[in-house]
Structures are given as structure tokens and as C-alpha cells.
Amino acid sequence: MKRRSFVQASVALGSFGALGSMVGCASVGHVPEKAQVVVIGGGYGGATTAKYVRMLSNYKINVTLIEPNGAFVSCPISNLVIGGSKTMADITTPYDKLSGKHGVNIVRDYVAHVDAAKKTVTLASGPTIRYDKLVMSPGIDLMFNTVEGLKEANESGQILQAWKAGPETLALRKQLEAMDNGGVYAISIPEAPYRCPPGPYERASQVAHYFKQHKPKSKVLILDANQDVTSKGPLFKKFWADNYKGILEYMPQHKVVAVDAKTNTLKFDVQNDVKAQVLNVLPAMRAGNIAVQSGLANANGRWCGVNFQTFESTQAKDIHVIGDAIMVAPLMPKSGHMANSHGKVTAAAIVAQLSDMPVNPAPFLSNTCYSFVNDKLVVHVASIHQYDAQEKTYKTVPGSGGVSAAPSELEGIYAWNWAQNIWADSLL
Amino acid sequence: MKTTSLSMARTLAAITWVATFGASAQMPPAATQLHNRATAAMCANCHGTDGRTVEGSAIPALVGMPKDYMVLQLKSFKDGSRPATVMHQITKGLTDAQIDTISSYYAATKR
Questions:
Q1: What pLDDT, in 10s, does the model give residues A375-418?
Q2: Which of A246, A258, A359, A381 has the fewest CB atoms within 10 Å of its CB?
Q3: Does residue A399 come out as left (phi exceeding 0), alpha (psi in the -120 to 50 range) or beta?
Q4: Which CATH superfamily is A2-141+286-361+411-427 part of?
């Protein structure tokens, strides 16, 4: 257990400041015996919840956030790092404002165990924290075992996912840079639901844009287990036909079942094998491991059912689950923006419950997902989800929401400002 | 799972509240304030926490925006008289009461 010994060694040092190379290392808080609210995971969902519980309680409710990474690395915009028009620094935000400005106690660790009956969280490094309310925002786990040979090929660094932004984002960029002009990049997409529905198509567009500029003999193959493009389909397909003809090829109904790392080949349930120089395999996904391990993934063993008014688990009292890990309501995407929205509804519900006030009977959620089709042009999909008290779910309002008429540079400006503003809203 | 006396007290408080006010009756002021603030926060994903955007943002800041002006803009997006890239789609999902709540919140928030 490398990670565990890393955490223990670091705790023994008494300060992560000793690890000078860590980007944007937050001031690491103490491990309290008890916190009113414990949040697991500092992504779009968890960071937003931690900040908004503090703000909405007028800084009266104490919050401990448990997160293993020293800084937040955004999945949205990370495809532009892969395409070469943004850098890792552009998509990285430190956690120090969450602690310094908002008084969130940040503990840098993994969670080993949750005891819902005793209401405790046990850290990988050993200590146990009691809570009144637990928020789990663990993101997704990639189910490498659903594709034969993938786990080993990923661990060796040969076949990357780069679906959790971080070291693999940069590693995939380097694979593309090292590839010959004339080489093939193939991305495989699992059946929905998965994190960020338009994300794989945006990534394919970014790589195609890079090839068009720098490696015009190269090709992008999209191997999609779904029947068709799952998000913004007509917009992506028109842009590909108009701009990436002969560079990008889309193949629906291609479900990867195995990889052969020796020959860099993808194997499918029905179709012929596909060989490529750079393989980017996205396996099926499920709720982050700590949620599954805690017995909260009660929908197909993959996603966590929640009471949508409060995001409290349908499985365990006083544990709220948010973000990509949940069993979604109809037409609700697994997106960073949506996780931020979940975080706010949850924060308000928790503040109400801990203050003996009624929770909001009619919350709503907003979502906007921007996709870059090259380095400047952008398309979006937007939606509003109103809580339906009768059916205890969220519904999109008929006639609301929708997609762009066409890619535009104006939306490109808004997309980058969206990223900067939501990073600030979640973390600063 | 054990039911603590604290959570029992909370359940009682909630039951008492429902019995006293009814599910659709008026909220205690502190609760209304909390819910309104959380409702307005649904704009903050793009428009910044409390309507304060990052420096140089083309997405406008909402903090301190006069209420009448904001209600008018949101309704103009909603009925299509003001063109937009996204807001015409977002506002069609909001009730007039939510538009009022959101506009009141940002108007009352100091720059």
C-alpha cells in the first residue's frame, strides 16, 4: 500500500510543508475527534458543500473536508490540456482559500472506513472522526476489470484513461506529442451513464484539432458503445463533417471487451479488432469506492440512491451523497456543474437540519456544460431541474434548457469564464 | 441505528413545525432567508459566489444589481425579447417567484 505508507510517513513528518514540490498545498488542518459536518472528497461537489455549509451557517457550523490531493485539478477544461491549448497550471486551483478564507478544516488523507451506525469516519492513516452529518462526494471509480487486460495496461502507463484529471492528463498529452505524423489515436466510450456525457466527444475534437494543425496525416477514431453520440450529437457531428473530414471517424455500437497491450489492439464484442498507436480507453464507471464499500451504492451496485430534497442516502441516515456518485434523476447529467448544484442544495439542507429549521420544500438545480470543438469555438447544453415533491425527483421544465444553435467564439469566451467562476465558487 | 435524543428532538421540532404551520404555510424567517440564499446560489456557478465574478469575466457580476432591472432582464430572456446564448434557455426553467427571489437577493447584497 504505497499511498497508505505515504500518508503515514507524511503524518509522521507532522507537516506536508516538508513536501515542497506539492502544488498549491493547502494548510493541513488537525484531525479532530469530532466535526459537525465531515465531507469526503474535495471535487466540484465536496468543495462546494464544505464552503457553502460554512457560508450558509454564517460560519457557525464546523466542517472537516477529507481529500487526498494537495490541489484541485479540474476535469472540465482538461481536454484542452490534452489538445495543447491549456496547461495543467490553468486547470489547477489550490485548497488554501477553502481553509484560510472559509475556515474549512482540511485533512489530507483517504478514508478507509465509514461506520454509519456509530457515525464515524476512519482515515487511512488511522484516526477516527465522529460526525453529525457526513457528505460523500467521492466521484467515480473506473471499472478496469470490465475490460480484459486494461488494469495491467493502465498501471504500466501504456493505456491511459485521463478521465480523472491529473497526472494521466499530462501523460496522454505526451503520448500524442510523441506519436508519429500518420499515427492513430483511438478513444473508446462506455455505455451511458458515465461521468461527463459530452466529454469524450470534446476530447476527440481537441485531438483532431491538434492533428489538423501539427500531424495532418494522423487520425482520430471514436469507438462508442452507445447507439449514437450521447450529448450535443448534431452539433458535434456537423462540426466533425465540416472541419475534421478525413481526420476523425465516429463508430457507434463498438463496445470494448478487451485490450491487447502487446499489439496495442482493442477487441470488441462483435466488430473487428482496432489497432492504434495511442489508445485511450474509458471503462464503465460507478460511484467512488468508499461509497460502494460503505454499502451506499444501492442501484445496480454502481450508483447511490438519494432522497432528492436533501441528497440524504436512501441507505443510511445522516449520510448525504452528491455528484457523479448518485443514481441520477431523469435527464440529470453527471457533471461538475451539477455536482456544484447538488452541493448547494445539500449544504442548505444540512444547515437547516442542524439548526432545527425546515428544509426547502422546492429546491432546484442548474446545469450548463460547455464543450470546445477546437481551441476557440464552443457549444453548450443547459438545463434547469425543479424538485417535484409528489414524485420525489427532479424534472426538467418543458420548453426550458437546450443546446447552442451553432459553435461560436462568444461561447468560447463564456466557457472559459464559466470555468474560472465555478472554480472560484467551489474553492475560493 | 440508534436514535439519539438530539435527533428525536429534531424530529419532534419538525413535526411541531408542520403541525403548527402546515406544509405550505409560511416559513420561519431564518429558514426563508436560508432557502432564498441557496436559491440565489444556483446562479453563482457561472456568476460567482454572491454574484461576484472573477476579474475580467465577460459573464456579468450580479452583486448589487438593481432589482427591477434584473427582474426585467430575466423576464426578457424568458419571453425571448432579449437574445442570449444560454440565459433564454435557463430562465424558461425558472418560476416568476424564483426570479423575484433571485433578483431580491442580489439587489440586497452589497458590492
A1: 999 999 999 999 999 999 999 999 999 999 999 999 999 999 99
A2: A246
A3: left
A4: FAD/NAD(P)-binding domain (3.50.50.60)
